Amino acid sequence: MPTHDSLEISWFAALCDDDYEFLGVPDPLLQSSWEHCKKIVLKAEEQGFDNILLPSGYQLGIDGTSFASAIANQTKKIRLLLAVRTGEVWAPQLARQIASIDQIAGGRLDINIISSDLPGEKIDSEERYERTTEYMQVLRQLLDGQDIDYQGEFIKLQISPPRIRTISGSCPAYYFGGFSENAKEVAAAEADVFLTWPDTVAEVDKTIKEMTDRSAKKGRTLRYGLRSHVIVRETEAEARKAAVQLVSKLDDGVGAEIRNRSLDASSVGVSRQIELRQSSNQDGFAEEGLWTGIGRARSGAGAAIVGDPDQVVRKIREYQQIGIEAFIFSGYPHIEECEKFGQLVLPHLTHHSLT
Fold this sequence. Notes:
355 residues; 39% helix; alpha/beta; eight-stranded parallel β-barrel; two-stranded antiparallel sheet; TIM Barrel; 18% strand
């Protein structure tokens, strides 16, 4: 992630079969595929987004690492934020994959570290985060070009770094999120950008202050990002109508099935998104501009910034004022909402591709 003061505005490539016109109603044309997800990324680059999140989900869509290596050669400016689940690929080989993709992308790669159970696995949370810590440490050392003599619980190896290096010669930025005690400690010690999910401005502010204190005690400084959905239209009435339309065909049973499908469905962060939805008003708004109805069919980030361009920009700036520097947005369907956001909101924000 670049270090200047402007915002980083990113979009979301729906690799995890998370693309709908109506939530809970699958459309074959919007399913995760090379062609569909490629179109999302190219649209985001065309609109001037700085970065694109390439998510990871075993049962839910095409493989993010394979996709990243292919799309890197079809893009020129947009950065690639590749989600990797620690433990799925042996650390030295993952380091080699990351360095290779970064070379293909010309140095445009960042890493979203995911700590979750692996497909078919269930281990204790403390053990899982220990594995995540070991992977983050070993990956960073290998990608920084350091020899490894590591004797952990999950990784035991003595090895030199792969010959292939990233363009910068160092490890790409780690984006990492999590709300359990273990997750926060890992983030404070190892992450570069701490990602939080949509919440009220006051709650996000509390999270930033807590993580700033935690990381300072470890002699480190974090940057902060927000992962949120967005619905923007020319007028507030049109935006609210679009929100209602999005969930107008959602069956509650289908929504529950979608929420429970993720490997992370029982996390502390997901619990907070449920609590936020339950505390919202009868229209689903937790506070002005923050609509939680989208969480009826989402296991992760369960709210959206909703409004006209001025309202959406104002909400983004409220988060920016408390310390959020990176935003990862998504919307339904992803190509159409990407274009609306690109035309109605991006021109009013100072962000990396403009500086």
